[in-house]
């Protein structure tokens, strides 16, 4: 760290009047600095500046002893487990000396970094804003879990019996495995089902129940998908009138949850239509392929540990975006920075992923396919489908306890707004014998101008006809047969 760089940082701090998430300023070394060391080491790293007074405009502290402060800081670094090893410099600044410590984020194998005398569950911190927040037991457990391969999806569900699995789905899966891994069946079906982790200790595993069960929520009532359509940009932005445009809770196996989730998003989002010279193209707010991949990822990679089994996957639709949130943050070597990049893949639930790789589903056209490719391509597919739709890439919010993917609603061009009116008027006319302009305005919620413009275009294309002469006050319209 040189003086010029430090001056730039302090200038920013003076502008905002406080330190920030990546920077902690202290006038001296106290015990609380250990919490900051832990917080920086557990996520993203950070910068500690000693010898400036935040309450006095970040001016140098009179009489500050930089050498003594550096020794004290090194002592505090040794009071964490593992010990924090920052890069420490003494830097000239405004006719004084300050101590600057650059703390790097620790590797997954070393987290959580905690204040030794407070213990792992009482002394692990993370940086939130300009403060150091103690991690919850759940968050600490997730950091510890990063060191090994989780096996929660392979745990037996002791209250469930083999009869709680759907026999047709199980048999179809076994048929695939028999062709692919015939040696697995050398000792009979029961042994094969144990080897494939369909059963463990005579009971279905969590993974097999979630993918092949008759009704998984009999045993895990909160392993569901919820949907909410909010009329504003936040959950609480509308305080009067209708606060939820739609709200659903879906149950069933993961393949069923995926189908239900996609369908409810499709029903609640707008689909404009772009009319060309010969053809009409549907333009949904959110590409269904992207929504499907995001929902599959959420259900496949979510945290299924005991403390997370009371949390559901959430689909929240707002007027400007769609959010899909799953319990548990990103796992293993996957980070927000490398999501979707070639060769980057890490599976929290290996057995569940293996089941979803071979269990068939049927799309809207009746074609069969697997629920998930399990090739680390989901995010890449999402990014590509958004790019193809000329939409911005998704945003990600990754926390220890959750992961959220955000799709921003597609902006509609003027000609698409008209095309959407065209589509709505045509749909309305198909549902009745005939309709007046006023009736179409009421049923479509469009303006009279938009309805009349769409009707005229439909008449010009030969799709709709008038029931009365052109200027008749009793004019109605109907689908031309």
TrEMBL record:
EC code: 3.6.4.12
Keyword ATP-binding: yes
Tree of life domain: Bacteria
Domain named Schlafen AlbA-2: residues: 21-134
Enzyme class: hydrolase
Annotated GO MF terms: DNA helicase activity; hydrolase activity
Keywords: ATP-binding, Helicase, Hydrolase, Nucleotide-binding
Pfam families per record: HATPase_c_4, SLFN_AlbA_2
Name assigned to this protein: ATP-dependent DNA helicase RecG
